[in-house]
Design a protein that fits this description.
alpha+beta, Potassium Channel Kv1.1, Chain A, 2 domains, BTB/POZ domain-containing protein KCTD6, T1-type_BTB, SKP1/BTB/POZ_sf
Length: 237
Amino acid sequence: MDNGDWGHRMTTPVTLNVGGNLYTTSLSTLQRYPDSMLGAMFRGDFPTTRDSQGNYFIDRDGTLFRYILNFLRTSELTLPADFTETDLLRKEADFYQIEPLIQCLNDPKPLYPPDIFEQVVELSSTRKLSKYSNPVAVIITQLTITTKVHALLEGISNNFTKWNKHMMDTRDCQVSFTFGPCDYHQEVSLRVHLMDYIMKQGFTIRNTRVHHMSERANENTVEHHWTFCRPAHKVED
């Protein structure tokens, strides 16, 4: 094969089906790191699998592969500000054996530039459940919002005036709003509207968790927590 044929082969588009997501790139990009799994795969060191359309098939996370491919193209790791799947991406980098990417993920740069910080809002729902009822009945439910973003709390105070609530200052200068007690249907309606309002202010859900507690033989308390985050610029004093 002469140099012209080799150059044409290296730049010919190649389509991959990664977990059901299709990506088109060049052979030279896939072989940027010869010691990686993709480098070996497209060097012919082990058999490849094709889907029904003839595309190369890899049974891995198709969504995260976009970051793998972008790294192969630029040798730079670029992630969105609200990216929360670093551990999963690290596993993908380990699978593809791309050592420079593994090093980037093990020694990451700060998530935000120096003049950016992260604002956090915590929303929790507390429900007391009675085992005497069949099905289990909600006795008391209340919602609590905790954040240092006072403008957000003022907006909630002004936009949710019909709800029974009280405000409390906490030791770390955060402020909490507690709604309730209210019945289950009121809590669901309020929670949906609160979450919608918070996300319209530019916050995204970072994580959720559930905590179960048994207080008495006939009662359980279930707490649901949601954490919302958004980047914000630091203001000089």
